[in-house]
Amino acid sequence: MTSFKASSCHSLNGSIKVPGDKSISHRSIMLGSIANGITNVSGFLEGEDSLATLRAFQQMGVQIERTGSNITIHGVGKHGLRSPSEPLDLGNSGTSIRLMSGLLSAQNFNSQLCGDESLSKRPMSRVIEPLSMMGALIDSNESKPPLSITGNQKLSAINYTLPVASAQIKSCLLLAGLYAEGETCIVENNTTRDHTERMLRGFGYLVNTSKGQISLMGGDELHACDIEVPSDISSAAFFIVAASIAKEADITLSAVNINPTRTGILDILALMGANITLTDERVVAGELVADIRVCSAELRGINIPQELVPLSIDEFPVIFIAASCATGETLLTGAKELRVKESDRIQVMADGLTILGIENEVLEDGIRIQ
């Protein structure tokens, strides 16, 4: 067992560039693999989850070359993937298994998706049910991985309203919709991250979005493009909070993804009184990017607006730390999705806060932190 010792610091100053965005890294491999031509990716996140996606597509016959964070993908087209010789092990990556279940439901070969002990406990009915409505054949272990997908199924487009705010479900169905007959339409009541829609457009695929509806027609092709992966705001979040609660702090994080479907943490911290400034805002490969300057601030507790929850779903563990250092009470509700991640993030964080002497109360769909 590895032990870590944390020591307090007097100040936090300087500039930093955090690793590439995980969501975009996953999608670059998936779409680059089924595109026609060679896709070059820079800034790819060399983490276990995104590397699991990379290895899975290599198992399906895609030539992918990697030099550090630079990736070259020799796309095989929408119908060029080959049957893997063994189950595709996706480790702990929920993004990989959910998005790939949509993509593989449309292939002409059978496949099996599996993962580690944690992934094997994750709910998959939320993608199995709508994919089955499209004509997919998927067997599971009581709606949990491993998933066995039967190939050679003719998929039909559907109109589907997301039962929960989930970019993974939305993206899964859009990837299946690439192969479906007709127009696939997804309705979301709450905005979720839109990296899939943006990247599909980058690959030349027409995606329509209007008033909470996302739609595409099946049958078109994807054409290779170059992708520059910006820094991941989920990784930047730890430094943003650290600088906010440290004394005499002044840091700048460069080239961070500020896609408006991902910046809930910035909005929440701003409501808490954080001193955050965005500079040099620009568009890189279809994604909004900026340098983020953060200085020390006196944070105050707030009731977190529920509409910001899906825009910051992966950042709540570090937001809880900000709340612990704020004056007054912070209340989070409407975040039940945190309980079905790789762990029950609400309970795990509450247990940690209790150990540190932070008063908190776990709610069914959130937490109260004093």
From TrEMBL:
<dbReference type="InterPro" id="IPR023193">
    <property type="entry name" value="EPSP_synthase_CS"/>
</dbReference>
<dbReference type="InterPro" id="IPR006264">
    <property type="entry name" value="EPSP_synthase"/>
</dbReference>
<dbReference type="GO" id="GO:0008652">
    <property type="term" value="P:amino acid biosynthetic process"/>
</dbReference>
<dbReference type="InterPro" id="IPR013792">
    <property type="entry name" value="RNA3'P_cycl/enolpyr_Trfase_a/b"/>
</dbReference>
<comment type="similarity">
    <text>Belongs to the EPSP synthase family.</text>
</comment>
<keyword id="KW-0963">Cytoplasm</keyword>
<protein>
    <recommendedName>
        <fullName>3-phosphoshikimate 1-carboxyvinyltransferase</fullName>
        <ecNumber>2.5.1.19</ecNumber>
    </recommendedName>
</protein>
<comment type="pathway">
    <text>Metabolic intermediate biosynthesis; chorismate biosynthesis; chorismate from D-erythrose 4-phosphate and phosphoenolpyruvate: step 6/7.</text>
</comment>
<keyword id="KW-0808">Transferase</keyword>
<dbReference type="GO" id="GO:0009423">
    <property type="term" value="P:chorismate biosynthetic process"/>
</dbReference>
<dbReference type="Pfam" id="PF00275">
    <property type="entry name" value="EPSP_synthase"/>
</dbReference>
<dbReference type="GO" id="GO:0009073">
    <property type="term" value="P:aromatic amino acid family biosynthetic process"/>
</dbReference>
<dbReference type="InterPro" id="IPR001986">
    <property type="entry name" value="Enolpyruvate_Tfrase_dom"/>
</dbReference>
<dbReference type="GO" id="GO:0003866">
    <property type="term" value="F:3-phosphoshikimate 1-carboxyvinyltransferase activity"/>
</dbReference>
<keyword id="KW-0028">Amino-acid biosynthesis</keyword>
<feature type="domain" description="Enolpyruvate transferase">
    <location>
        <begin position="11"/>
        <end position="369"/>
    </location>
</feature>
<dbReference type="InterPro" id="IPR036968">
    <property type="entry name" value="Enolpyruvate_Tfrase_sf"/>
</dbReference>
<keyword id="KW-0057">Aromatic amino acid biosynthesis</keyword>
